């Protein structure tokens, strides 16, 4: 961990603009300046030209085309996005050694110690944007501020293809007029609670005592929002920060799904998640099932195992149990998305083996399957129940 001086705006939040769509426009000149949608059934990403018509990520493809009939729909190319991400992160690492990746298309950079060799943070930010465009061919927006939270807010306000610096003596003047949704962690449900009480801007939230927010939202959320509304964010840049969980999800559409279909989807997700865990040499204890229903409401179910594991069979058994418990809700409300994640992660090499050391507890099958897939590709071997089924896309992730 590295702690900035906190006296000047020296934290950068760099965020690629409409990442997947920008890669498509970069690689196909015919798409430039046109509304582009990546993904047909569900919108995985869209260009700013499509966003101007109200198209949004995760929107149903048919709804997106009704809003933007002239949109060009292209299939996703995950390998191209992964390569572009690696190239951009190389630019980040050439800029400063203090880089904290958030996802494949955004990161925090601490440039506080580079003034003598690289100039002021705003000069570094300008060069960073120019380097990403020149070396990778993609537009990127950068926010510069004294805290990570405010740097991220600044980049969001500056989009697309912008640069915004928030001086330390103008932080609250910049922050307080913004909508409450700009506060990190405020989603639709929390925003509705705040708006129902007449709290529409960050400044409205800042006026309330912490105790009032705690009474309204609970202790954790109330304290969190009270701190952010006053730009209190002491979190340092964490270089090499490992994931707290590893997961995957699958959009299903709105048609009815049989128990057999859902089980096949669940098995495919567990296979994907546990392979990623073993590749990163991680083991986890808490298995979480996430569901989204036809009315867009969501439900989460989780179970914590007695010991950490990366074994596919153990995690699948737990996930199936959670799915079975949620079956009445699924039958009543329909289902449009299934997600699975494993948290409480540990380094696999430090997990203590449990007695008895019987053959069933070993990982020979997982190791053999991983070896085949590593050598011949992820589709070289699969479960019989998944044959002929679309298993969805494997979204690129940052190395863990």
UniProtKB/TrEMBL annotation:
The keyword Membrane does not apply. Mg(2+) binds at residues 15, 105. Pfam families: IMS, IMS_C, IMS_HHH. The active site is at 106. Keywords: Cytoplasm, DNA damage, DNA repair, DNA replication, DNA-binding, DNA-directed DNA polymerase, Magnesium, Metal-binding, Mutator protein, Nucleotidyltransferase, Transferase. It comes from the Bacteria. SUPFAM superfamilies: DNA/RNA polymerases, Lesion bypass DNA polymerase (Y-family), little finger domain. One of its GO terms (molecular function) is magnesium ion binding. It is found in: Cytoplasm. Monomer. This is DNA polymerase IV. It comes from Kribbella voronezhensis. The gene is dinB.
């Amino acid at each position: 961990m590295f702690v900035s001086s906190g006296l000047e705006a020296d934290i950068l939040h760099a965020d690629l603009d409409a990442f997947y769509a920008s890669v498509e426009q970069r690689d196909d000149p015919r798409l430039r300046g046109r509304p582009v949608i990546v993904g047909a059934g569900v919108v995985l990403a869209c260009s700013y030209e499509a966003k101007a018509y109200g198209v949004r990520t995760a929107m149903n493809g048919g709804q997106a085309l009704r809003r933007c009939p002239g949109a060009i729909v292209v299939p996703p190319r995950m390998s191209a996005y992964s390569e572009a991400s690696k190239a951009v992160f190389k630019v980040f690492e050439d800029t400063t050694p203090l880089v904290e990746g958030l996802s494949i298309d955004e990161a925090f950079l601490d440039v506080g110690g580079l003034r003598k060799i690289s100039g002021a943070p705003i000069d570094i930010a300008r060069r960073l944007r120019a380097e990403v465009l020149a070396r990778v061919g993609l537009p990127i927006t950068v926010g510069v501020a004294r805290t990570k939270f405010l740097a991220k807010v600044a980049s969001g306000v500056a989009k697309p293809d912008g640069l915004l610096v928030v001086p330390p003596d103008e932080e609250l003047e910049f922050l307080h007029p913004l909508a409450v949704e700009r506060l990190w962690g405020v989603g639709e449900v929390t925003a509705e609670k705040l708006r129902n009480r007449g709290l529409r801007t960050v400044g409205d939230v800042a006026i309330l005592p912490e105790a009032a927010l705690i009474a309204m939202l609970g202790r954790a959320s109330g304290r969190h929002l009270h701190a952010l509304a006053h730009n209190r964010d002491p979190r340092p840049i964490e270089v090499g920060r490992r994931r707290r969980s590893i997961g995957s999800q699958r959009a299903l559409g709105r048609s009815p799904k049989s128990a057999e279909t859902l089980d096949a989807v669940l098995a495919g997700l567990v296979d994907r998640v546990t392979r990623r865990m073993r590749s990163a040499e991680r083991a986890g204890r808490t298995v979480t099932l996430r569901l989204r229903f036809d009315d867009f409401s969501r439900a989460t179910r989780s179970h914590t195992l007695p010991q950490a594991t990366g074994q596919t069979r153990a995690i699948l058994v737990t996930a199936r149990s959670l799915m079975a418990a949620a079956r009445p809700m699924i039958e009543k409300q329909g289902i449009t998305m299934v997600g699975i994640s494993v948290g409480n992660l540990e380094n696999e090499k430090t997990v203590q083996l449990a007695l008895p050391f019987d053959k069933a507890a070993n990982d020979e099958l997982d190791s053999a399957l991983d070896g085949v897939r590593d050598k011949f590709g992820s589709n070289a071997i699969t479960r019989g129940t998944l044959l002929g089924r679309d298993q969805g896309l494997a979204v690129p992730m940052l190395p863990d």
